[in-house]
């Protein structure tokens, strides 16, 4: 399995391209912006975007969808019925699917948004705006913040410490790093 | 990306060495594996999707090396020259770097978090979207570097210089800074306080 990281200065967001060695059908997570660099990344590695996964429907994670759908005939997955008028295959907490021979499981971790999904692919976790390096996602109320922290503790912290974390914004990290340096997660 | 295959030694959850069934700590032929990797790094100067953690590296000349999607976590690097290297999506977390030079490197999307740096120089480098969170750095410098979107949160920085750097979106939240210089750098564009995380 190959994982490619793409950063877009529009929305300051990360997009992840995941596929098998040698190319073929691939997965794109959070296309916040479709630019020529992302297109080159896909095409030069002989990938076809068959599946698009969204961690949540905020614009900085979804704005590239319309352009992508003009190029590829992709299935869309998220925890919401529609994104930009495109019909979505809805995933919920605990959903497990296999996309392009790659097993993907989803965890619903609300707080930053009500539809926030975290995707686990082998030992890689695509956390969107739920968990980033050294911080957690922003929230609009103390209730949402409590919900987010509780869900992270219940669903993410029990995972293996070696799990690699690929967030929606900022640098990658690992679960072990976050347990030690993230002020929200490290033991008091 | 390196294979996410675990070491088959009982109760070990380290990732195994690429194309091996055990991690470096439990490999029977440590010396051979180490020499093989060092030979590959110093001659080919390019390594992709490779995992070898918990290993010591001493007195190596890796100028111009290209590392992509590799994992060298929990390793020790002493007197290693990484000058002009290109490091992308690679993981060096919880490692120790002593007297290492990373001058004029490009680091993208790489993780050095939780590592110790003593007498290391990163001057003239492009270190973008990289994670130095929780590092313990002393007598080191990042002068003349672009540190866009790089994370130094929760780090301990003692006699570390960030002169003439681009610090746009560089995160120093909760960092402990002693004798740290930001001279000629746009430190006003870096993050030192996060109101939404209080």
Q: Descriptors for this entry?
A:
heterodimer, A: 188 residues, alpha/beta, Metallo-beta-lactamase, Chain A, six-stranded mixed β-sheet, 5 helices, 16 strands, globular, B: 198 residues, mainly beta, seven-stranded parallel β-sheet, five-stranded parallel β-sheet
Mind explaining what this structure looks like?
The complex is a heterodimer of chains A (188) and B (198). Chain A is an alpha/beta fold and 188 residues long. Chain A has one domain (2-181): Ribonuclease Z/Hydroxyacylglutathione hydrolase-like (Metallo-beta-lactamase, Chain A), CATH 3.60.15. Chain A contains five helices and 16 strands. Chain A has helices at 36-44, 59-62, 65-71, 142-156, 175-181, and strands at residues 2-8, 13-19, 24-29, 47-53, 75-78, 82-83, 86-87, 89-90, 96-99, 102-108, 117-121, 124-128, 131-132, 135-136, 164-167, 173-174. In chain A, the strands form four sheets. Chain A has a six-stranded mixed β-sheet with strand order 1-2-3-4-5-8, covered by helices on one side. Chain A is globular. The model of chain A has no long low-confidence stretch (mean pLDDT 94). Chain B has 198 residues and is mainly beta. Chain B has one helix at 30-44; strands at residues 46-48, 56-61, 66-68, 76-81, 86-88, 96-98, 106-108, 116-118, 126-128, 136-141, 156-161, 176-178. The A-B interface holds A 1-3, 5, 7, 12, 122-124, 133-136, 138-139, 160-162, 164, 170-174, 176-177, 180-184 and B 1, 4, 13-15, 49, 69, 73, 88-89, 91, 93-94, 108-111, 113-114, 129-131, 133-134, 149-151, 153-154, 169, 171, 173-174, 194, 196-197.
Draw up the topology in text.
The complex is a heterodimer of chains A (188) and B (198).
Chain A: E1 2-8, E2 13-19, E3 24-29, H1 36-44, E4 47-53, H2 59-62, H3 65-71, E5 75-78, E6 82-83, E7 86-87, E8 89-90, E9 96-99, E10 102-108, E11 117-121, E12 124-128, E13 131-132, E14 135-136, H4 142-156, E15 164-167, E16 173-174, H5 175-181
Parallel strand pairs in A: 3-4, 4-5, 5-8, 12-15
Antiparallel strand pairs in A: 1-2, 2-3, 6-7, 9-10, 10-11, 11-12, 13-14, 15-16
Chain B: H1 30-44, E1 46-48, E2 56-61, E3 66-68, E4 76-81, E5 86-88, E6 96-98, E7 106-108, E8 116-118, E9 126-128, E10 136-141, E11 156-161, E12 176-178
Parallel strand pairs in B: 1-3, 2-4, 3-5, 4-6, 5-7, 6-8, 7-9, 8-10, 10-11, 11-12
